[in-house]
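Just curious: can you write a single protein's sequence together with how it folds?
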Amino acid sequence: MFGIVAPAGAPADIIAQLSSTLAQSVQHGAPHQKLTDRGFTPIGSTPEQFEQRIHEEVAKWTELIQKGGFKAE
């Protein structure tokens, strides 16, 4: 999973425009082909969907780390 983030406090209209443009670019043409050729599955989600996915991934990996008893050294 990877995505593009903006600094905290970035104007909502700028975020919306970037999100729309980037989502379209990963769904079509050369950017889509380059990503799929490298094994990625381009999604092009909204900022809200990406934020939700980040929270889900953090929760999943936190649980796995805790259950496995892993510790940072």
